[in-house]
Specification:
The structure holds two protein chains of two kinds. Chain A is an alpha/beta fold. Chain A is built from 14 helices and 16 strands. Chain A has an eleven-stranded mixed sheet with strand order 5-4-6-8-1-9-16-15-10-11-13, sandwiched between helices. In chain A, a hairpin with an 8-residue loop joins strand 2 and strand 3. By secondary structure, chain B is an all-alpha fold. Classes of the chains: A alpha/beta, B mainly alpha.
């Protein structure tokens, strides 16, 4: 079958700012940080970390109580984002007359229902209970989000979850893209969700010494990608979803097309568990450009992986300089993690949305907390977006996800005239 | 708390069903109780009354059968 063009017809998320998709991008473009200070009542030691949460998210209100009570928070965030994207695509939640037997879900999550298992440990070890809720398995399983999405939207095709650390949802989106492009699925719901505030998870990240420290006053500026004084990443919870649709089908039904997904490349550094490597990232970038049929000169914006770790940021910049050569100095790059944090398994999805909206709105969100004075010289050599840019002609853009384990995933998008 | 109250409270909290609709002749399936929710309901019952339903339990079909089962177990525990 001839390759199909793939339209992005739906975008949806649970925004850490509490508003809708439009509000999310307005705030992102304004450089507004959603990072707050998280202080828990855990004993003997509470969590006291910078974090991006979604306090306005009410699962019972968003999903209805019967459905919400069947889900762990990661699945609630995922289901809510999926509903939002589906509604945005103008697709009815019930199938009606059409068959959805080959429509599918490809979801990313790094942690799945970790909170359900953590509750189990608390109940058994702290509270002295002798057994767990019979729902624990179905709350905790990594494919809970995609399973619920398939059921709620009546999708009878593939329903799968991808767990690839920080590249989980970038890979989920890429795999969904391939299925639509090949003609295997006319519609794929894709994205990711995670809730990394599990006590054991947050503590584990602290132990790795890659998490930025902060108190209530400094939390908003805790995540400083590419800055000389960066101290590490900031975790966040969230869910983000995209509807990928066969181009002709989308046009035929008069759907709004936010953008086009045109390329995907994924590989492995195959060298170290946590130290990223320029060579692997360069290969992933080249593979994506080739897959998209784009030249380096066609790219007008890159949404960087940019986690604000000491080691990761310069490696990514070196990879970009290698691929884009002398044009790198004019290549706009920003790390929106500086504002929405690192959503682990949802990171690739929320950043894909930011990238698609940048193309659609012809506006580039900045790397918050970064300015010419605090830029790390080791991260220089590309066009850092210090403050938002509006009305810039953007033709195509990339979104990078470079995960622990050495897995790299890059997605390529093209602007569509609105 | 009697077992009918427990069932009513559970289904009201989980499914938003009016307690008045939870009558002995109502089919559990019609109230949205599937196999998973049945496990939850049994779990809740065992928790509240500190009892254990037999492993080889034959799933009750109606609210009335569930009540009979639970009440019988409570009574046998007391004697």
């Amino acid at each position: 079958m001839n390759p199909r063009r793939v339209a992005i017809t739906g975008l949806g998320l649970v925004s850490p700012y509490g508003g809708d998709l439009t509000d999310f991008f307005v705030r992102l473009a304004a450089g507004e940080s959603a990072v707050r200070h998280l202080l828990t009542d855990d004993r003997p030691r509470p969590l006291s970390i910078p974090f991006v949460d979604c306090p306005a998210f009410d699962p019972d209100a968003a999903l209805g109580k019967p459905l919400a009570s069947m889900m762990d928070r990661f699945a609630q965030l995922g289901m809510a984002a999926a509903f939002a994207a589906w509604d945005d695509a103008g697709l009815p939640r019930a199938a009606g007359g059409e068959s959805r037997d080959d429509w599918g879900v490809s979801w990313g999550t790094a942690l799945g229902g970790t909170l359900a298992y953590e509750k189990g440990y608390r109940d058994l070890w702290q509270k002295g209970r002798d057994r767990l809720s019979p729902l624990t398995v179905v709350l905790g399983m990594n494919n809970a989000a995609n399973a619920h999405i398939s059921i709620q939207l009546g999708l009878g095709g593939v329903s799968m979850s991808h767990t690839v650390a920080c590249a989980s949802s970038a890979i989920a989106i890429g795999e969904a893209f391939r299925r639509v492009r090949s003609g295997e699925a006319p519609v794929m719901l894709t994205g990711g969700s995670d809730a990394p505030q599990a006590y054991g998870v947050a503590r584990a990240w602290e132990a790795l010494r890659v998490m930025a420290p902060a108190d209530a006053d400094s939390a908003a500026s805790a995540c400083r990608p590419f800055a000389a004084d960066r101290r590490g990443l900031v975790l966040g919870e969230g869910g983000a979803a995209l509807v990928l649709e066969d181009w002709d089908r989308a046009v035929a039904r008069g759907a709004r097309i936010h953008g086009e997904i045109v390329g995907y490349g994924t590989n492995c550094d195959h060298s170290h568990l946590v130290r990223p490597e320029t060579a692997g990232q360069v290969r992933a970038l080249h593979a994506t450009l080739a897959d998209a049929g784009l030249a380096a000169g066609d790219i007008d914006y890159i949404n960087a992986h940019g986690t604000a770790t000491a080691e990761g940021d310069p490696v990514e910049i070196a990879a970009l300089k290698s691929v884009f050569g002398e044009r790198a100095t004019r290549l706009p790059v920003s790390a929106t993690k500086s504002m929405h944090g690192h959503l682990l398994g949802a990171a690739g999805a929320i950043e894909a949305i930011a990238t698609v909206l940048a193309l659609r709105e012809q506006a580039i969100p900045p790397t918050a907390q970064l300015n010419p004075d605090n830029l790390d010289p080791a991260c220089s050599g590309i066009d850092h977006v210090f403050s938002s840019r509006h009305g810039v002609p953007l033709r195509a853009a990339l979104s990078n996800s470079f995960a622990f384990g050495g897995s790299n995933a890059v997605l390529a998008f093209r602007a569509v005239a609105q | 708390m009697k077992s009918i109250e427990l069932i009513r409270n559970f289904l009201n909290a989980r499914q938003g069903i009016e307690p008045a609709k939870i009558v002995p002749e109502a089919l559990l399936a019609d109230l949205g109780v599937d196999s998973l929710m049945m496990l939850e309901l049994i779990f809740e019952f065992e928790d509240k009354f500190d009892l254990k339903l037999p492993e080889d339990l034959k799933s009750p079909q109606t609210v009335g059968e569930m009540v009979t089962l639970m009440d019988g177990l409570i009574a046998s525990q007391k004697s």
